[in-house]
Automatic annotation (TrEMBL):
Gene3D superfamilies from the UniProt entry: 2.30.42.10, 2.40.10.120
Domain PDZ: 398-478
Superkingdom in the source lineage: Bacteria
InterPro entries: Chloro_Bact_Ser_Proteases, PDZ, PDZ_sf, Peptidase_S1_PA, Peptidase_S1C
GO MF entries: peptidase activity
Protein name (record): S1C family serine protease
Originating species: Streptomyces cinereospinus
Enzyme class: hydrolase
Keyword GTP-binding tagged: no
Length: 494
């Protein structure tokens, strides 16, 4: 599947979301905060919960990469699938695009919130010219249509006037606060277009949104990755005011990052956070971002699916990100990464992160565009991650202490015979070991959520917090067994 890391392809994800038997697996609780909108960037995950087994050279991720299937096993140079231990990131499966930063990136292909994300190249001197050309073409088309219409009216109207008057001009219309226009009017002032540039001049554009009144902004890791080590970062509000910013913390595995405005203005209004656990398929959605660098763009759609397993990467060889995503058909493109996915009331329910795409993008960028398959990180999870990043600057991941295969199958998540680098596949004294799990066991369910692959298991585990107790169903020697496991923790991405 493509994730909104509009960039590189990742491990293939199952074509259908995990099937809850009774109730969906719990996700981290999320307090009602009011965040703002920041841009997205691509980031790889840290040691996985269930250590995935797969080599670094796995398939690209969803837009990540176009037409990415379910999470597949990463393959070694020889073509054989490799397992990867929990200590390291699982290799990406088939493509899903993570919205890459626009500019040199922009929202990436879900390969988060797509198809594979292409690392933005240094901004060419003529890039602005290309955008202007595209805008001019649009203007000419509209102008040509208007001219033809005016000529027809003049020919068919017996009066001397060739103009048409509307009963009310757009500016005089009173819009209900509950309409898309009303929601957008309230949310846009709290979103920003993020430009990230590395010390070598490479970078791209993404989106973000205000998280608190102190100037913290939530976005995707893959949006700001270029500026993490000595790069330059700016955030521009819809009113044109631009502020320098710094990265407070970033989580490659979750594809979430928090930046802070330097000399933040007073009066910031954080966006209200909703409850992604209560979202239902069919609910209306509103996405805000900067697709292909077009800041403050608003698109609408619905929640197409929940708990969609998505693995994504930015296409630069970085580690994959895993999520149990909200799927939406609201148009999401490179540059939308890190922007808010809102419900009909304007509450943030997700962070746009990736797309599944099947073709090249517009404006001569060569990036894949939307085909109605966008993926967002549930806000309950993103909020928890953001709070940890603000507190310590480092992400915290839940884990079971076992390496699982990333092979493309629908039978479950198999614990590998060998861990990464020849380590033990089941960590001695870890949660899996204490629960009696061993190499060869196939995990088929976590709580009430069906597990059809390693990446699906990883994404589901990461919706929990360290210390949570979960019920794992697994198969061994043809028999089905159930055991309770208390999740351990891992701090950092390495």
């Amino acid at each position: 599947m493509s994730t909104e890391n509009e960039g590189t392809a990742v491990p293939p994800a199952p074509s259908a979301p995990p099937v809850p038997v009774d109730t969906p697996a719990a996700s981290p609780q999320h307090p009602a905060h009011a965040p703002a909108h920041p841009p997205a960037a691509d980031a790889p995950p840290a040691p996985m919960p269930a250590t995935p087994s797969g080599g670094p050279g796995g398939p690209e991720q969803p837009s990540h990469a176009p037409g990415a299937p379910g999470y597949g096993a990463a393959q070694a140079q020889g073509g054989a699938p490799h397992p990867e231990p929990e200590g390291g990131w699982p290799p990406p499966s088939p493509p899903a695009h993570a919205y890459p930063a626009q500019g040199a990136g922009g929202a990436g292909d879900g390969s988060g919130w797509g198809a594979s994300y292409e690392q933005p190249a240094p901004k060419p001197a003529g890039r602005r010219g290309g955008l202007l050309a595209a805008v001019l073409v649009a203007a000419l088309v509209a102008g040509g249509l208007g001219g033809g219409l005016g000529y027809t009216l003049a020919r068919n109207d017996d009066s001397s006037s060739t103009t048409v008057s509307a009963s009310d001009s757009g500016g005089d219309i009173e819009r209900d606060p509950g309409t898309v226009a009303g929601v957008t009017a309230r949310a846009l002032p709290s979103t920003v277009t993020i430009e990230a540039e590395s010390s070598s001049g490479e970078g791209g554009t993404g989106t973000g949104f205000v998280f608190d009144t102190e100037g913290h902004i939530i976005t995707n890791n893959h949006v700001v990755a270029d500026a993490v080590d000595g790069g330059k970062l700016t955030a521009t509000f819809p009113n044109g005011k631009k502020y320098d910013a710094e990265v407070v913390g970033n989580a490659q595995g979750y594809d979430v990052a928090v930046i802070k405005l330097l000399n933040a203005p007073s009066g910031l209004k954080p966006l209200t956070l909703g409850d992604s656990d209560k979202v239902a398929v069919g609910d209306s959605t509103i996405a805000i971002g900067a697709p292909f660098g077009l800041s403050n763009t608003v698109t609408t759609g619905i929640i197409s699916a929940k708990d969609r397993p998505v693995a994504s990467s930015d296409g630069t060889g970085s580690q994959a990100s895993y999520m149990s995503a909200l799927q939406t058909d609201a148009s999401i493109n490179p540059g939308n990464s890190g922007g808010p996915l809102l419900d009909a009331k304007g509450n943030v329910i997700g962070v746009n992160s990736a797309i599944q795409s099947s073709g090249n993008g517009g404006f001569g960028t060569g990036q894949s565009g939307s085909i109605g398959l966008g993926f967002a990180i549930p806000i309950n999870q993103a909020e928890y991650v953001a709070q940890e990043l603000i507190k310590t600057g480092k992400p915290v991941y839940a884990r079971i202490g076992a390496s699982v295969s990333l092979e493309d199958s629908t039978g479950g998540a198999k614990i590998t015979d060998t861990g990464a680098g020849g380590s033990d596949p089941v960590e001695a004294g870890g949660p899996a070991d204490q629960a009696g799990l061993r190499p060869g066991d196939v995990i088929t369910k976590l709580d009430d959520t069906v597990i059809d692959s390693g990446p699906t298991l990883i994404g589901e585990i990461w919706t929990h917090k360290p210390g949570d107790k979960v019920e794992i169903t697994y198969e061994r020697d043809g028999r089905t067994n159930t055991v309770d496991v208390t999740l351990a923790s891992r701090v950092g991405d390495s």
